[in-house]
Design goal:
By secondary structure, this protein is of the alpha+beta class. The chain is built from twelve helices and six strands. Strands 1-3-4-5-6 form a five-stranded mixed barrel.
């Protein structure tokens, strides 16, 4: 693909005008086959013009994706000369096409007359790459990092095979630059870098970050799955235990003691904090085996708490004179003892 693009540019004049499609949020690299959706009438007309002709179209990234009417200064200076494959019109005036990037071109001018944008382009000078150990090491490193992140990023198997067979530094860099986890600004920077060795150097930390993020995602997914599995298992076991206890209660002819205790708790004027604690102990009581000594301890504690006089105490009526008469009638003598009792009541 790179060779075809180079030959195409070699046959051009110093400047040639071709249909242009501005890209809002995507970058197509040389050697990459990608789907392209066009919604603006000028972009649709540019694709149709290219399909009617020799298939060549220029793809350039907008600096501001919100702009609809663009000028030359609104486009990144380095674009891609691409070939339009299948083209399909959509309802509502849009279109979809399959494009194949061929080579980098430099945008020289922009003609907005007519139904479509047309860009004047010039060939981008190819940087010679010397056969040096550093270049071989960079190629090997980029291919290895790309292979590690390809599975997690959902990279197409065809792209992975193409990368494994690639040997030219420029081709390796362009395939890796199309990695889906790279942000738009990083891809634009890699497209505008015309030196393959510099692109490889810049790709190493970017792909390493992508691999690290993919590994972190995998660990988080495993932790979440493990947590969900444990929660589901606990829920199933608790449901099975509840059914077994109900069956045992029916066999023994016993009432649902746990439900009776909860009803008693709700009927008491107990504050929220002790009520929650008692309900927790009732829940724990249901899980303790009947033969365990702990069951009687917990049940005794619950009964003691429930028997306490929760709520406002009844109003007391203290009549010292009446008390003195009752003490004299019931107890002969003991004057000092009765005086102490009356003093205590009076206080």
């Amino acid at each position: 693909m790179t060779g075809n693009g180079a030959g195409m540019l070699a046959g051009m004049e110093a400047q040639e005008t071709l249909p242009l499609v501005p890209l809002r949020d995507n970058v197509v690299f040389p050697g990459q086959v990608a789907p392209l959706a066009a919604g603006r009438p000028r972009s649709v007309s540019a694709l149709e013009e290219a399909a009617r002709g020799d298939g060549r179209v220029v793809l350039a990234v907008q600096r501001d994706p919100e702009l609809n009417d663009i000028g030359l200064g609104d486009l990144c200076p380095i674009g891609v000369l691409a070939h339009v494959g299948a083209l399909r019109r959509l309802g509502g005036g849009g279109a979809q096409a399959l494009v194949e990037g061929r080579s980098r071109v430099r945008l020289v001018s922009l003609d907005k007359a007519g139904d479509s944008w047309r860009a004047g382009i010039a060939a981008v000078e190819q940087h010679p790459v010397a056969a040096e150990p550093e270049v071989d090491a960079l190629v090997t490193t980029v291919k290895g990092l790309f292979a590690q992140g390809a599975g997690a990023a959902g990279t197409s198997p065809d792209v992975s095979v193409t990368m494994s067979r690639a040997t030219e530094p420029g081709q390796v860099a362009d395939i890796a630059a199309a990695a889906p986890d790279l942000v738009l600004s990083e891809r634009v920077r890699l497209l505008e870098e015309t030196d393959p060795v510099r692109r490889l150097r810049e790709l190493v930390p970017l792909l390493a970050r992508q691999v690290e993020v993919a590994q972190l995602r995998a660990r988080i997914a495993e932790d979440v799955q493990r947590t969900i599995t444990r929660a589901q298992r606990e829920h199933i076991l608790r449901e099975q235990l509840r059914v077994v206890r109900r069956e045992l209660a029916e066999l023994d002819g016993a009432d649902d003691d746990g439900a009776d205790l909860l009803t008693r708790i709700d009927s008491l004027a107990m504050p929220d904090e002790p009520k929650q604690r008692v309900r927790k102990e009732v829940s724990r009581l249901e899980q303790i085996p009947s033969a365990s000594p702990e069951m009687s301890v917990v049940r005794t504690w619950i009964d003691l708490i429930l028997d306490l006089p929760w709520g406002a105490p009844a109003a007391e009526q203290i009549d010292i004179a009446q008390t003195a008469r009752i003490l004299d009638e019931d107890h002969d003598g003991l004057a000092k003892v009765k005086d102490r009792l009356l003093e205590w009541l009076a206080v």
